[in-house]
């Protein structure tokens, strides 16, 4: 078994540096191969770091586009932008997350325990389950195959599968996960579903698996209601200058430099809000918890000297509120958290702080604000905006190939 990935920005930057040479044609040609035995050599494995923003989308694109032209790295750039797109899509249609969480309480769980413990009669599926629960990672193609087999061959509820992923993926993310499961099921692009095929699995696992004759051959897509109309992109307030200010770190955005552009006042204290335990109503795996906690504490160490006294890392709104009071804060500034458990906790925190006359100011990252404006339709339309986003947000040296 691989060692658990270190939840630090240093490791994120090391991974990025190691990956960049393969981000061009190699990635375009080989990214679909699922090769866990070789350590997944053709993909970046940056997702746990991007998910917690130990490294940002802009930084990753800057490194890759510092080496390759946008045309050469087009595939990789598009994949990174899928994450931004899904986040914006869900942010503007939050009912997709609320509905999923509500339905999760209502679905029939018969057969789910066997699938989750890798006791089906499909060896490939069982292997991926083991990889997921042991390492907290699955290759994108394996995620598609697992989700498809889960929904169409095992005929289990997609919501339970999405929750299984959220409990075990180190990169478990409300937007990418929920919307990808919906996409496989045929609910995201209506009528279009993803059907896992044995020949495709055999090819892209390099012959490691070949579940011929075991997969549903012609399943119908699931049906669902039409998408709601998108709500506007959130507009966030600006921190007040000259008031006693604390910074609250949270696991949805641990790259804090952009906050400095908005802070016209010294920061006297900082604390961390941990919401990983709420990614699922069930028990989130210890690997996921320790990655999120480690990422928060790495960030507190890196930023501690600029952000005053260190407060607690806590999963309790009451504790964070007590910290803000004890530090005599007049405002708490934090990166904007998109739809998901952190956003729900921040809503509760806002009410608790309001009662103490302390303001909570969420600041939306300019990349998100600009990109989310284009999440009105499908990814194809969004993709046309990528060159402009790159030009506006990615400061790059001249490319060499
Ligand atoms: C059913 C299913 C569930 C998924 N759940 C999650 C999840 O909870 N969290 C998550 O981060 N991704 C999720 N994905 C997307 C994707 O599988 C992972 O982001 C990717 O496999 C991460 O591995 P990597 O970093 O090596 O990717 P690379 O191929 O190296 O891609 C680079 C980065 O681009 C982004 N990216 C790549 N592919 C996608 C994609 N299809 N959608 C969104 N972003 C992408 C990721 O941030 C990734 O780190 C899911 C996909 C499926 C099909």
Automatic annotation (TrEMBL):
Binding locations of FAD: 27, 76, 171-173
Span of domain Cryptochrome/DNA photolyase FAD-binding: 76-214
Residue spans of biased composition, Pro residues class: 222-233
Keywords, comma-separated and alphabetical: FAD, Flavoprotein
GO molecular function: deoxyribodipyrimidine photo-lyase activity; DNA binding; FAD binding
Domain of life: Bacteria
Lineage: Bacteria, Pseudomonadati, Pseudomonadota, Alphaproteobacteria, Rhodobacterales
A biological process from GO: response to light stimulus
Keyword DNA repair carried by entry: no
Annotated spans, Disordered: 210-238
Entry protein name: DNA photolyase
Source organism (scientific name): Gymnodinialimonas phycosphaerae
Record bears the keyword Flavoprotein: yes
Pfam family, one: FAD_binding_7
Residue spans crossing the bilayer: none
């Amino acid at each position: 078994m691989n060692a658990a990935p270190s939840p630090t920005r240093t490791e994120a930057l090391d991974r990025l540096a190691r990956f960049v040479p393969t981000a061009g044609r190699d990635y375009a040609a080989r990214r679909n191969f699922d090769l866990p035995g070789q350590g997944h050599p053709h993909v970046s494995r940056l997702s746990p770091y991007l998910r917690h923003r130990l490294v940002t989308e802009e930084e990753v694109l800057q490194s890759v586009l510092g080496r390759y032209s946008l045309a050469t790295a087009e595939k990789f750039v598009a994949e990174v932008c899928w994450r931004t797109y899904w986040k914006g899509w869900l942010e503007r249609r939050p009912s997709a997350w609320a509905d999923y969480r509500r339905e999760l309480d209502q679905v029939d769980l018969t057969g789910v325990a066997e699938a989750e413990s890798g006791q089906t009669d499909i060896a490939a599926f069982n292997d991926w389950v083991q990889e997921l629960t042991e390492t907290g990672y699955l290759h994108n193609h394996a995620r598609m195959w697992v989700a498809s087999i889960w929904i169409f061959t095992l005929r289990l509820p997609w919501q339970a599968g999405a929750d299984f992923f959220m409990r075990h993926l180190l990169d478990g993310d409300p937007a990418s996960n929920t919307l990808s499961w919906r996409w496989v099921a045929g609910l995201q692009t209506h009528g279009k579903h993803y059907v896992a095929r044995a020949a495709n699995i055999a090819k892209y696992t390099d012959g490691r698996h070949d579940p011929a004759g075991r997969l549903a051959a012609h399943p119908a897509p699931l049906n669902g209601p039409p998408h709601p109309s998108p709500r506007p992109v959130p507009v966030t307030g600006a921190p007040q200058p000259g008031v006693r200010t604390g910074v609250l770190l949270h696991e949805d955005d641990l790259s804090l430099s952009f906050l400095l552009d908005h802070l016209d006042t010294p920061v006297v204290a900082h604390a961390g809000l941990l919401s990983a335990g709420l990614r699922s109503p069930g028990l989130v795996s210890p690997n996921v918890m320790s990655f999120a906690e480690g990422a928060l504490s790495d960030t507190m160490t890196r930023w501690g000297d600029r952000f005053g006294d260190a407060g607690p890392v806590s999963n309790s709104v009451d504790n964070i509120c007590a910290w803000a009071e004890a530090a005599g804060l007049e405002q708490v500034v934090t990166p904007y958290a998109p739809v998901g458990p952190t956003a729900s906790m921040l809503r509760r925190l806002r009410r608790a702080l309001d009662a103490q006359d302390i303001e909570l100011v969420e600041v939306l990252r300019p990349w998100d604000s600009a990109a989310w404006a284009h999440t009105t339709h499908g990814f194809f339309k969004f993709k046309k905006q990528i060159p402009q986003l790159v030009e506006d947000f990615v400061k790059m040296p001249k490319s060499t190939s």
